[in-house]
Each structure stands twice: as C-alpha cells, then as structure tokens.
Amino acid sequence: MTIQQTELLYLPPDLKSELLPKHVAVIMDGNGRWAKGQGLPRIMGHKRGVDALKNLLRCCKDWGIQALTAYAFSTENWNRPHEEVEFLMTLFQGVLRQELREMVEENVEIQFVGNLQALPVALQREISHSMAQTRGNQSIKFTVATNYGGRQEIVQACQAIAQKVKEGLLNPEEISEELFAGHLYTAGIADPDLLIRTSGEMRLSNFLLWQMAYAEIYITDTLWPDFDRNQFHQALRAYQQRERRFGGV
Ligand code: FPP
C-alpha cells in the first residue's frame, strides 16, 4: 500500500476524496479573544494558535489536501503594540527552528510569501533556511503569508510588469491573467478552493485578493486556538455541499 493510500484511509467516511479542496487558505483570527476569555495575556493566544496551525497542517496532509496557506502577519499588523509584534516575530522564528526537522521528515514544502525584506534579519535567515531545506518536498505545500498585503502584492506585480514593458521585454498586449498571476508572490501555487476564517469576522482583510476570485468562503464563530480536526471536518463537509459554478450556470 502506498503512503498516500494509507493516509487517505483516515479521511472521515462522509467526505469524498474526489471533492476535497486542493488548496485551503486560512485566516487565523481570534487568538487575542481566546486568551482574554481564558484570563491569559494575548501572546498566549498566539502560542496556542501555533498548535492549532500545526494540527491543521497534519490534518490536511493526512487527508490528501495538496496545499495549505495561512495568514500569519499582515502589512497592517505592524500597528499592534510593539511588544506583541516583537513576540510574534520571535515566535515565528522559534517555530521554524523547532519544526524544521519534522517538516523535512514529513516531506512538507514550506514557503513564505509577502514583503519578507522588511522582517527582522534573523527571521529572514530562518525563513530562507527552511525554504531551502524543504524545497521540492511533495506531501503538501505549506505557504505562510508574513508581512503580506494583497493590494501591495498586486502593486508590486504591476511594477514588475511595467518595468519589463519599459525595457522592451514585453508588449502590453501580452499581459494576460496567467502572466499577471506569474508576477504575484504566489506564482506557481494554484488558487485556493476554500477560505476558512475563524472568529466570525466576515472580511477578506487584504488576503490573497487576486487568488480568491472563485474561492468558497467558510466562516465559523470558533476562535482560532479552538479550531481542531472536528471543526475542519465540518468546514470540508460544508464545502462539499457547495455547487461551484465559476461564473457558469
Ligand atoms: C489573529 O488573531 C492572529 C495573528 C495576527 C497571528 C497568527 C499567528 C499564528 C497563529 C502563528 C503562526 C506561526 C507560524 C510560524 C506560521 P488576533 O490577535 O487578531 O485575535 P483577536 O482578533 O481576538 O484580537
């Protein structure tokens, strides 16, 4: 029995493997509220949020989902209190260092998207290292959006394309949807089929604006640290009941 068949055995029987999303994106919201509800400082919510993300990654891999993209830090999140931003940057770095071996063993490819040059240098180094060590791994593509903003991503794609036109490398008529998508941070990654947002907020919050054109959106009141395998199962059940028409009838 191949590894993939073994893994698929764990898919709950009410889910159809042929109707699973290939790519799941997630806005992990509600860490602060979760911590407050437990009488804990906000940073404890982020710590528990990492555990929820690890569980989701494992679940996606076990059930045969090919890609997971998580919104870890937006370009707007710099406006949070300095101590919280600093904590998050240190947390990301620590998690990467701690989890790299397991990601390599589990054949996970990790990738970061966003304006990475503005991140602390030590974190940039950890990011480059983890991307290099997992490049080409096949079990699941795990993308972390860090210092990411959808509008900023579109603007930088426009600048790169305009530069090519200016240098005579490209004619304006050659600019197509495919060419444009190839200049986004997510070049080479298929668009998400399902977006999950926790904590009941009904916003895209500048996340993957171009890529989300036909994504199904699932919103749950559950706070991110409480989002577990059962919650994900429910989200997938709801997704499989949707009829995806992509603008057709
Ligand atoms: C939103 O909750 C959450 C964040 C801004 C941070 C999410 C980051 C993680 C879970 C860590 C991921 C780690 C790696 C390495 C990928 P909030 O603080 O906005 O919650 P609130 O709306 O209740 O205040």
TrEMBL record:
One of its GO terms (molecular function) is magnesium ion binding. Binds 2 magnesium ions per subunit. It is an enzyme of class 2 (transferase). Coiled coil: none annotated. Substrate binds at residues 30-34, 42, 46, 74-76, 78, 80, 197, 203-205. It comes from the Bacteria. Homodimer. Catalyzes the condensation of isopentenyl diphosphate (IPP) with allylic pyrophosphates generating different type of terpenoids. This is Isoprenyl transferase.
